[in-house]
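ERR on first pass: missing label on line 2. Operator R.T. fixed the label and resubmitted. Corrected input:
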Amino acid sequence: MYRTTDILEHKQSPSAGGVGEAEYMVINVGPQHPATHGVLHLVITLNGETIINVEPHLGYIHRSIEKMCESLTYRQFIYTTSRMDYLSSHINNHCCAMSVEKALQIEIPERAKYIRVILDELTRLASHQLWWGAMAMDIGAITPFFYAFREREMINDIMEETCGARLTMNYMVPGGVMFDLHPNFQKRVKEFIAFFKSKIDEYDEILTGNVIFQNRVKGIGMLSKEDAISYGCTGPTARASGVSCDVRKLYPYELYNNIEFDEIINTGCDSFARYQVRMQEMKQSLKIVEQLIDNIPEGDFQAKTKAVLKLPKGEFYTRVETARGEFGVYIVSEGATTPYRIKFRSPGFSNLSALNHMAKGNKIGDLVAIMGTIDLVIPDIDR
Amino acid sequence: MMRFLVRREPNFGMTNKNMTNEELKLFTTEQFPFLIIEEGNEWLTYYVEADEWKTLAHQLRNHTSLQFDFLFCLTCVDWKTHLTMVYHLTSTTFKHTVVIKSKLNREKPEIETVCDIWRTAEFHEREVYDLFGVQFLNHPDLRRLLLTDDWKGYPLLKDYDDPINMIKL
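pass 2 clean. output:
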């Protein structure tokens, strides 16, 4: 890499025009870059090694899901949301199913609520595990990736058995869930909890307490509370800046107002704070699953609904807490079988908009450590 | 003696507290009599003229008893005769929510940007420009966001016809 002085001495022209004496260099990261975990293109302006500006270029996998949904029925459109945030696909489906239920005032059976919440939390766990492994790998530690995938595999197996899919579950339908739990479900979830409880401390031992790791992530990517709110950040990204924004606590849905769990808030504002929030959230998710797994009531898993769903005329906004933050579905209905307009408020999109602000003034080497802790999933951003 | 000199904000008998939809409605209609209310929604919904939006946005954000500091959803709806901008605002301090809508001329959709008030609007407005063609006046960087720069047309408009339409093929 050229340093600014080299450029000045050898009068080499950098790829971007300079301002005054300092000549800036422009570097493209992506769209094919291992640390972006998808096709995200960042145009970075550098002064030496210091980041001046980060400009995200999006849309490499834009499928215009919102337009597609306008010609899909209220039973069909749910499945497109699995393809957005593929790590929280279950929770996305949950939000869409809930928005239809809310509009049609469908009361879903208790059993379905339990199943939904347990699977939501398992999804969140799997997502955070993947994030943990991938983030560690981004900044140079390979081993955590294998640790994380060992446990994540168990969740994927549970999902496969019950939902029939490992990634795009498509298990939620308006009125409940598509079919009943697999007979092995409770046994395997309990096995997983017991196993993961012994391993989660290992996560802390191998990475959290590591001095090299801490030096990489402490004090970088600062995001103040005011900025986090102004940039519309949600989820662990905002909670690490001291913003209380957990939808499960603020606007409780399904069973969340009866469950005992803590909203994790950290006021560190840096990458390490975001890391810690997610690590503690995993423990909270375990706690939620533990509380529910023995008490799943017997009964129906799906309420009786009409074959053709027609939403009344009006507007409906529903939100849930995904692993990345607030996911919202805004449906404008004209009383037909298909929505007139759908807007998906995806958490990744807003969180990404804060990246430039967070990265400015940091060194280019820290960019990956900052990006890693925002936990970007590109299809969620591009939609 | 300084402690007696507490300056009180004129807040029309309202204390700084969480307001319910009804209280918020009373308060805002008194403050902003020019707004037209839309009934029948989950949240308080107002229509505002496009040229009054910026002033209103400033007041919603900065008024001590409102403090709508979190713009959680910004989007547009094509109603074939006109476009409607929809802003979902909430206050992280008081937890109340309001929805502001603004009707735009479909031939020449223009509205002031609010990205200096809520920073998240910068990306969201670029997205709306990209998909609906709404011009956000004074936006610092209004370019296409998701689609390529040479894309023709605005795909989320109802009369947009995709040259490669998979359903018609």
